[in-house]
Specification:
The chain is α/β, with parallel strands linked by helices. The chain has helices at 14-24, 63-80, 94-103, 118-121, 125-129, 132-137, 146-156, 173-183, 186-192, 214-222, 226-231, 245-258, 271-279, 295-303, 316-319, 331-343, 352-362, 364-376; strands at residues 4-9, 30-36, 52-55, 84-90, 108-114, 140-143, 164-166, 200-204, 232-237, 261-265, 283-285, 306-310, 326-328. The strands form two sheets. It has a seven-stranded parallel sheet with strand order 3-2-1-4-5-6-7. The protein is elongated, with a radius of gyration of 23 Å.
């Protein structure tokens, strides 16, 4: 069977594209090219799939030189990829996507667009409609969830309904969780992380952004009765996203004032370690202001942990498929709801049903064939 040539064009977040290639594209079936603005990743990581990495900008050169070389590189890429089976645009960016499409897009027999999230949800309508010519030429337009699907339909007045699909990325950390569960006990994992064995472990949020509303959650827990407060151990992940030391210190002070035992996780952890870390939680509690279905939350469902989330975040994709979670209306009501979870020992038994559903919905193993099918369809 002749290989198909495919160009993945993405301006940002190279590691997401790398994960996509690792889990979806087989180099025995595809001749794979990856085009981006720049990459500081060691290109050795692409060698296992024989990916040809093409970059448009060199940070070591001046702005004028970069502009001249940018045009030269684009023309060279246009000539090199003059017979291209598929171009797949990831993260639709007004500057990058228009530029690449102008030089290379017409070389491709098939065009796929995949919006990731903020490139649709946080962009003005004018930016989204600026791609109308590309939408008309495209074979498929993919969005990650129903919220994005509905917004795209509204903005484009449902002109591209026959091309529009909703297909999400898988989460490779789910595989790490499964391996850790198979090889280690929860008690041994907690010992390795120096986590108390005689406490109920509560993970509070999943990053350091203020939108997680850490302090409001901590104050809600501070209002719990003494028995509940003494029974729990809080772990607050601040590995990324914390805006400054001031906000971090405010979180620490609120924790100290509460009298609840805690640990601040502020070091970067790799994918395998993240899997183990998720397994240490009895309860995952968060209160983000707005949120798509985050990978972190998906991973806590996969571990079977009890998930407590605000009602203002609606995840119909999960609930429609049978995922269960505990919800609170506001931070005042959170206190009683959390106390009930602890006193009624609702956290005790791991939710195997949630775990099973998540693996069927969000693992790369379950999604790979759907992505590949997209390349075969007209």
């Amino acid at each position: 069977m002749k290989k198909k040539s495919i160009l993945l064009a993405c301006p940002t977040s190279v590691h997401f594209v790398q994960e996509y290639i690792e889990n979806v594209l087989d180099d025995s079936l595809f001749d794979i090219y990856f085009l981006t603005w720049r990459t500081n990743l060691n290109e050795e990581i692409w060698h296992t799939k024989n990916v040809k990495v093409l970059t448009l900008i060199n940070d070591n050169e001046s702005k004028i030189i970069n502009i001249l070389k940018l045009l030269f590189r684009l023309i060279s890429i246009k000539i090199r990829l003059r017979k291209l089976d598929i171009i797949h645009y990831h993260f639709i960016d007004k500057r990058f996507t228009h530029l690449v499409d102008f030089f290379v897009g017409k070389n491709a027999q098939k065009i796929i667009l995949t919006f990731w999230g903020s490139d649709l949800l946080r962009e003005p309508e004018k930016s989204i409609t600026s791609f109308s010519k590309l939408y008309k030429r495209s074979n498929k337009i993919n969005v990650m969830n129903i919220e994005m699907f509905n917004k795209f339909q509204k903005i484009t007045k449902s002109q591209y309904s026959k091309k529009l699909i909703s297909l999400d990325f898988g989460d490779s950390t789910l595989d790490s969780i499964k391996v850790a569960q198979k090889n280690k006990s929860i008690d041994n994992i907690r010992k390795a992380w120096n986590i108390p064995e005689d406490k109920i472990i509560v993970h509070l949020g999943y990053n350091g952004f203020e939108a997680q509303q850490h302090i409001k959650m901590i104050k809600s827990l501070d209002s719990c009765n003494t028995k509940v407060k003494k029974s729990i151990f809080l772990i607050v992940p601040l590995s990324y996203g914390c805006p400054n030391e001031k906000y971090k210190n405010q979180i620490i002070q609120a924790l100290k004032d509460s009298g609840i035992n805690f640990y601040i996780l502020d070091k970067f952890i790799d994918k395998d370690s993240i899997g183990e870390f998720r397994l240490t939680a009895d309860i995952f509690l968060y209160g983000q202001t707005t949120d798509a279905i985050s990978a972190s939350m998906i991973e806590y469902f996969a571990t079977g942990s009890t998930v407590i989330k605000p009602k203002w975040l609606i995840y119909s994709e999960l609930t429609d498929n049978g995922i269960t979670m505990i919800e609170y209306k506001d931070f005042n009501s959170l206190t009683n709801i959390f106390e009930n979870v602890i006193l009624q020992k609702l956290y005790k038994n791991k939710n195997k049903k949630n775990s099973s559903i998540i693996y069927s919905l969000k693992s790369w193993n379950s999604l790979k064939n759907q992505w590949l099918k997209m390349y075969d369809e007209n």
